[in-house]
Design brief:
The complex is a heterodimer of chains A (381) and B (102). With 381 residues, chain A is of the alpha+beta class. Chain A is built from 13 helices and 11 strands. Chain A has 2 domains: 204 residues, no CATH class; 165 residues, Beta Barrel (Barwin-like endoglucanases). In chain A, 56% of the residues lie in helices and 16% in strands. In chain A, helix 10 runs antiparallel to helix 12. Chain A is elongated. Chain B has a domain of 49 residues. Chain B is elongated, with a radius of gyration of 25 Å. Chain B is an all-alpha fold. Classes of the chains: A alpha+beta (381), B mainly alpha (102).
């Protein structure tokens, strides 16, 4: 074995023995350190995976949506708008969408009631609905069951549950109730020709902004929402959320920083005496520094790896169970979803740098100060 | 000769490093979940179903700037998930720069 390696092995051995002498204190430090890395890594992984998921899931959302605004509020599209949009150059196709909200007093939850598009693969039949998985759970529904909903007009409507949407798509479909156009119009009393909004596809993707500008000019009360804007909304939503959680964690982080700094930089009399003895029996300053470097590196590396792996399992294999109560808010319906594992290498490197590096430096610097003093003075404290 | 203490510690670190590498492999091999994306395309959906209590939290991309203050101009918005969501971002001013953001 090369002399250098033997020397490092002896130093690590000595460091471990030294750590074992203050077992409780060091285990406590390792636990707190691991917990901090776990929390930071969980927030980071969760935020990044949600952003990726939103971008992947919504990449095929409508190219342009046209809403009509009346007195600053979203209003129904009146008859005639669809035809006028068809005359705008660059618009490839235009379809009205029918959707709305329904508050179910039975489970105190809001549903999104929607009519599938005419080209949907499996359209629903009159008197039948297809429901989202979370809604089916909340109401205890299964295919074949009857569900009665009281419309805003006071009339009672009964529907047969034709199907429950796939659990895998719950992130976008948890609260959906799909019904036919005729049922929707009867249920919400929306007359023929009116729509909630309009979806457009544009022949040339490069022209989307120009077409939207033309629509704004032709229909001044309309508000075009582009797919890019939808994706941008989700990017900022999760940045904001990640930021809020990090602000809440800031107190814990500062407490840890003080704790680690105190532990790493404030040498106890016992440690000073130990360094004095080592110097007196012939250790060089470099050896003492290497020994302490190994101490910092071993503790921080173990805490980083343990904390990161635990955070990965928490976010991607235990459905972020710790964050669920925060994210659920007041919602009765909450989707059960598992995020597709996605990791940003730069974020992991940043986390590694900001957790491992400061602790290792904080351990080494004060030792260097103690190690360059006279052994006799160090032993006397 | 490595001492038993060093061997145990290095074995622990090696196991943790292997677990770290396994997470990387898990990420690389994870299949893209297509079910939700297919449904978005089929039903022409626009938003994730994360908060269902208010329309501006259920469909943040479709909400206008006024929707959290829907009751009257100085109303405080009253849903807790409003604090977890960023306010609706102003959409691009397409035709008339002087027009209101929404």
């Amino acid at each position: 074995m090369p002399a250098w390696l033997t020397r490092q092995q002896a130093l690590i051995d000595f460091t471990l023995a030294s750590l074992a002498r203050r077992k409780l204190k060091n285990l406590g430090l390792l636990l707190v350190y691991t917990l901090i890395v776990f929390l930071l890594a969980s927030v980071m992984l969760f935020g990044h995976a949600l952003r990726r998921e939103a971008a992947a899931v919504l990449k095929d959302s409508p190219e342009v949506i046209i809403q009509r605004m009346v007195a600053g509020r979203h209003d129904l599209i009146p008859p005639g708008y669809l035809d006028r949009l068809g005359h705008i150059r660059g618009v490839q196709s235009q379809q009205g969408r029918l959707w709305g909200y329904y508050y179910d007093p039975v489970v105190k939850a809001n549903y999104t009631v929607m009519v599938p598009g005419p080209d949907a693969a499996s359209p629903v039949a009159t008197g039948r609905v297809v429901v989202g998985a979370a809604m089916a759970r909340a109401r205890g529904l299964a295919p074949g069951n009857l569900i009665s909903l009281r419309a805003y007009s006071g009339r009672l409507f009964s529907f047969t549950v034709a199907d429950v949407l796939d659990h895998d798509s719950e992130l976008v479909s948890a609260d959906l109730v799909l019904m036919t156009e005729a049922d929707f119009r009867a249920f919400f009393e929306i007359t023929a020709g009116h729509y909630t909004d309009i979806v457009l596809s544009v022949a040339n993707p490069q022209e989307v902004r120009n077409v939207a500008a033309k629509i704004s000019a032709a229909l001044p009360d309309s508000r075009p929402i582009l797919r890019d804007e939808v994706l941008r909304t989700y990017e900022s939503v999760f940045n904001w959320r990640e930021g809020i959680v990090l602000v809440l964690l800031a107190g814990a982080l500062l407490a840890f920083a003080i704790f680690a700094w105190e532990k790493a930089s404030g040498l106890s009399a016992e440690e000073k005496r130990e360094i004095g003895i080592l110097k007196a029996i012939g250790w060089e300053t470099g050896d003492v520094l290497k020994m302490k470097f190994w101490e910092g590196a071993l503790v921080s590396l173990t805490a980083f790896l343990l904390g990161y792996v635990a955070a990965y399992l928490h976010v991607f294999h235990f459905a972020s169970a710790l964050f669920e109560p925060v994210l659920k808010g007041w919602a009765v319906l909450y989707p059960r979803f598992e995020l597709t594992p996605a990791v940003d290498g730069l974020q992991v490197a940043t986390l590694f740098f900001f957790t491992v590096f400061p602790y290792t430096v904080a351990t080494t610097v004060p030792i260097w100060r103690a190690a360059i003093t006279d052994p006799d003075a160090a032993m006397r404290g | 000769m490595w001492s038993r203490r060093v061997q145990r510690t290095l074995a622990l670190l090696a196991a943790l490093a292997a677990a770290f590498l396994l997470t990387c492999a898990d990420t690389a091999l994870a299949p893209e979940d297509q079910a939700a994306a297919r449904l978005v395309a089929r039903l022409r959906l626009t938003d994730l179903c994360l908060f269902t209590e208010a329309r501006y939290t259920r469909h943040p991309s479709q909400a206008d700037l006024h929707s959290p203050f829907q009751d009257h101009p100085l109303a405080l918005e009253h849903f807790p998930s409003g604090s977890l969501l960023t306010p609706p971002i102003p959409h691009a001013r397409l035709a008339d720069p002087a027009a209101s953001a929404d």
